[in-house]
Amino acid sequence: MAATSWSRAVKPRKWALSGSKTAVACLFIVATLFPLVWMGLSGFKAKNEVTRTPFRFLPEVWLWENYLQVLQDPAFVRAMAFTLLASTLFALGSLVVNSMAAYVFARLEFPFKRAIWAVVISTMFIPSMTILLTSFLVVNELRMVNTIWVLVLPGMASASQIFFIRQFYLGIPTAIEEAALIDGAGPFRVFAHVFVPMSKGIFVVSGMTMFLAMWNSYVWPVLTITESDLTVIQQFLALFRGARSTEYGLLMAGSTLALIPVLIIFFAFQRQIVQGARLSGFK
Amino acid sequence: MYTRQRQRPRARAGVNRRQGTLACLMLLPAVTGLSVFVLWPLARSIYLSFYQWNFYTDNVFVGWKNFADVLGDPKFAASVIRGLLFTAMVVPLQLLIAFAFASVARSVGPRMAGALKMTIYIPTVVSTVIASLIFVVIYQFSGGVANWLVGLAGAEPQAWLGDAAWALRAMTVPTIWIGLGLTSLIMLAGMLDVPESYYDSARLDGAGWIRQQIYITLPLMKNVFLYLLITGFTVTIQQFEIPLVMTSGGPADSTLLPNLLIFRHFRYDDNVGFSVAAAILLFAVIGSISALVFRLLRSEKATDA
């Protein structure tokens, strides 16, 4: 008797508690996504509707004009294609460069290994601003300014990515490669035929991180790309805002379109990216 | 037996030498990249900070003059203070929201937790340019979403980005929004490491949610907080893309964060030495404050134990 009244008293409270937790969780989701959803919807709104005073979340009439106009702008399409190319080259190149280095530091022995490792790791702690200006001087002297290489080459070798991939390689038991070594395979073949096939997950995370870093970069292109044919997408958006500052619908449509490749990548690999973010961030 | 022992070291040395060559070859691209695009510019920065230099004339050695100029520049000092203020607004709030997020994600069902984790991470992949543009429109004086929300609360509309008193505060929102994903996921990972049984026994003893957090979660997650505090600080004080896109440092320099000041100097000032010296000094400020925070929190922990 006492037991039943106790459980009866507790149950509604428990229900209310889990209900409020779900409500808070939903609030989190709505607040986080609001700016993005609002951006996408604003792209469908007429010129003056984005900032009309009685606030309306949904467009009064769904207009495709903004999106079509942006898509028909050759400068926009060129910027998207160029940034896609640069980001892809950057990500693929970084995977080759950084995974080889990671393997060397994880498995091979050579003179001055610890000293070189220390130097590589120390580059992670250099704030970008201390080398931003002189990096510009360097690429200027190498005649890389206003070419795709100024985007692709600097930053391709990345200490944090080497560190991240090396952590994964250190976790692979040596027993796995011993069979290959006994069969007479050299370390490079072990890397190419044993390590690389096992690195799919880690390559996805590292490659996507680098791809997104390039896709989203703005300051470096502003310094090094001045030719309008080679404008990257973030530059395009910032310039667009400067040139047509009041056409919010158009601006939001362009921003939405520039975000779509990122979102596609994010949703395709979200589990790995979210997991990898946690791993690379802490532990 | 005898021969085997004699042969082994020689064979090993051969393997090692071969391995050494291969290691060099495989390291070459990464080491070259880091040398040319990180170490060499760093060396140049340190070198140039002692020179009066621009694109058109020869270097003139000026000793510590650039550093003295930077330290004597009231604008630089003001921007550093502004940066610290900005950090003080952003980081605690970000940690608080991340903590709330992690607490919620920990206690809801696995499907809801998955949705939460995915959602909170989405702003992280949005570029600072796009985030800035969205918030520029949100902060419009007439018809902006921010003023609509403020109006619902019955307050006066503000010219958020046009008003020197509000612009920097307004910028904390996109900054927090973009940085929240990583902070929250790390916070959640730390929280999940705290054994559930601790909370169970606390509950049996009649401790409520708040006391559980104060006596169990916070002490056990000290290292996570320390890590997030320092990384949050170093990332936020270096932020300059958001003010660059949203206001270019205005109005009346109210959003001129230290890195933006340096960036501006580099683009519009002849003497590169000044910008480089300022960047190095800022690095020193960041490094010493991080070290100090680390020390303080660590020593506190030491006295606990």
What does this structure look like?
- The complex is a heterodimer of chains A (283) and B (305).
- Chain A has a domain of 171 residues: MetI-like fold.
- The termini of chain A are far apart.
- The N terminus of chain A is likely disordered.
- Chain A is an all-alpha fold.
- Chain A contains 14 helices and no strands.
- Chain B has 305 residues and is mainly α.
- Helix content of chain B is 78%, strand content 1%.
- In chain B, helix 3 crosses helix 10 and helix 4 packs across helix 7.
- The radius of gyration of chain B is 26 Å and the shape is globular.
- The N terminus of chain B is likely disordered.
- At the A-B interface, helix 1, helix 3, helix 4, helix 5 and helix 9 of A face helix 1, helix 3, helix 4, helix 5 and helix 7 of B.
> Uncertain spans of chain B, ≥5 residues at pLDDT below 50?
1-11
- Name the shape of chain B in a single word: globular
Q: Total number of helical segments of chain B?
A: 13
Sheet having the most strands of chain B: 2 strands, antiparallel
| Portion of residues within helices of chain B | over 70%
Largest sheet of chain A: none
Tell me what portion of residues of chain B adopts beta-strand conformation.
under 5%
Feature tags:
heterodimer, A: 283 residues, mainly alpha, MetI-like fold, disordered N terminus, B: 305 residues, 2 domains, two-stranded antiparallel sheet, 1% strand
